[in-house]
Amino acid sequence: xxxxxxxxxxxxxxxxxxxxxxxxxxxxxxxxxxxxxxxxxxxxxxxxxxxxxxxxx
Length: 57
What we know:
Blueprint (H helix, E strand, L loop, with lengths): L7 E6 L5 E7 L2 E9 L2 H18 L1
Antiparallel strand pairs: 1-2, 2-3
């Protein structure tokens, strides 16, 4: 039985006070993306990236 590696979106507050996200998709970690003014925007953008990556795979 083989399972796919975990897919996650982690939202972080950046040093400049803005929000960004880190995506871990199928075992690959992508660096912090974005300069969002709210945490909710960063969450939504991260989820959209995961959905787009799922469609390509």
